[in-house]
Amino acid sequence: MVNYLKNIDKKAVLFVCLGNICRSPTAHGVFRALVERRGLAHLIEIDSAGTAAYHIGNPPDHRSAAAALRRGYDLSDLRARQAIAADFGHYDYIIAMDKENLAELKSICPAGFQGYLGLFLDLAELSVLEVPDPYYGGPSGFDQVLDLVEAASEALLNRIAKELNQ
Ligand code: 4NP
Questions:
Q1: Which pLDDT band, with edges at 50, 70 and 90, does 6 fall under?
Q2: Atom nearest to 25 CA in ligand 1
Q3: Is the pLDDT of residue 86 over 70?
Q4: How far is CA 160 from CA 11, 13, 58, 121, in A?
Q5: What is the per-residue pLDDT for 9?
Q6: Active-site residue flag, 133
Q7: Is the pTM of this model over 0.90?
Q8: Position 80 in a domain
Q9: For an engineered disulfide with 15, which of 7, 33, 48, 120 has Cβ 3.0 to 4.6 Å away?
């Protein structure tokens, strides 16, 4: 289905994990900061969502928020929501943190979606493909998420900037 209201001079990016309280809000905050630093905030819309409904309306997990803040990323304005089929009519990039999230997204993706639906780390040349879920692990997991997200955010922004001729 063609969305005639879509603004083709802008790109919209949705980061998706399971709960939308650890990995995808981290990606949201990191990518937002990078986009602002590059002066492209007026051209790139960013949001994040979870495939599950467990945490709808909740702020990011305090461990993710603290780890992000230590690197200068403020996640305090973010609130969890669930990814829905209508997101495919709005976002150009729907980016999954792991293969399970991607499979869930594929199951609600309408036929004819023309954007990018794939793994975040597939966009970067890293030795891993998935951002591991830090929820049940120790503190180092949250820093590992940040390391992977920072690297992949650079790759994503380079790709989008090229598409926008920036
Ligand atoms: P996220 O992490 O998908 O990175 O937000 C999780 C958050 C919550 C749960 C699992 C993973 N949970 O089971 O509640």
A1: low
A2: 5
A3: yes
A4: 8, 10, 29, 15
A5: 86
A6: yes
A7: yes
A8: yes
A9: 48
Could you identify the atom of ligand 1 that is nearest to the CA of residue 54? 14
**The one catalytic residue among 9, 22, 23, 98:** 23
Q: Quick one: which atom of ligand 1 is closest to the CA of 26?
A: 4
CATH code of 95's domain: 3.40.50.2300
- 22 neighbors 64 (Cβ within 8 angstroms): yes
Does any domain span residue 5?
Answer: no
- 3 within some domain: no
**Which of 22, 100, 145 to probe ligand 1 with, by most ligand atoms within 8 A of CB?**
22
Is the pLDDT assigned to residue 159 strictly greater than 80? yes
Where does ligand 1 bind, in terms of residues with CB under 6 Å?
17-23, 54, 133, 135
**Minimum CA distance residue for ligand 1 atom 3:** 18
**Which contiguous run of DSSP H or E holds residue 17?**
strand 11-17
Q: What domain range includes position 36?
A: 11-163
CA of 10 to the centre of ligand 1 (A): 30
Is 90 exceeded by the pLDDT of residue 155? yes
With tokens 């009519």, the residue in question is 89
Q: Judging by beta carbons within 10 Å of its beta carbon (0-12, 13-18, 19+), is residue 73 exposed, middle or buried? A: buried
> Is 23 part of any domain?
yes
